[in-house]
Design a protein that fits this description.
By secondary structure, the protein is of the alpha/beta class. The protein is built from seven helices and ten strands.
Length: 206
Amino acid sequence: MLILVVAATAPEVEPLAKYFGNKIDVLITGAGMVPTAFALGQHLSHQRYDLAINLGIAGSFDRSIEPGFVVEVTEDTFAETGAEDDERFIPINILGFGEVAYKPTATLDDVESNFYLKKARAITVNMVHGNDASIKKVQDRLNPQLESMEGAAFFYACQQVNVRCIQIRAVSNYVEKRNRDSWQIGLAIKNLNTFAIDLIDAIIKL
């Protein structure tokens, strides 16, 4: 099985990349939805994969999903794509110019039924939230559990070329007023890679 691991930055998947070497392909896109979509569009036009896995860290709106938790993202939404109508936000799907919410084309259970993760809804943003008022506003509008800067773009790109895909993220911090002292990036990366290595090992050995 040909597997592509997609990550925004190399440190997020460094342990996995070292473990597997050339047994799998790893695509580092750069942070953000535009670099992610471009890198995937370019890469997938030249190579076909049986499965693409988006790995990365995320912020959690949901206090029950604590830093260090690894989750499967089952829906991801472009949170900022639309128009302002004074205090009201109109998403692009209501405007009639496209979709904002995307789902994976596979599930963890489809890929390897012996593995299970808590499932979560995510949003993809250009600016991660760090203001109480803006956090409340997006929670009231979309009720997300996680946020990243790439997830929905990954789903979109994979859907366009009909590649099976899943997104797995580890929580590095709560979404709150910016407080670097409370971040658990090292723990998130460790737990993410431990799970992903076990998962991909199981898939390869099938």
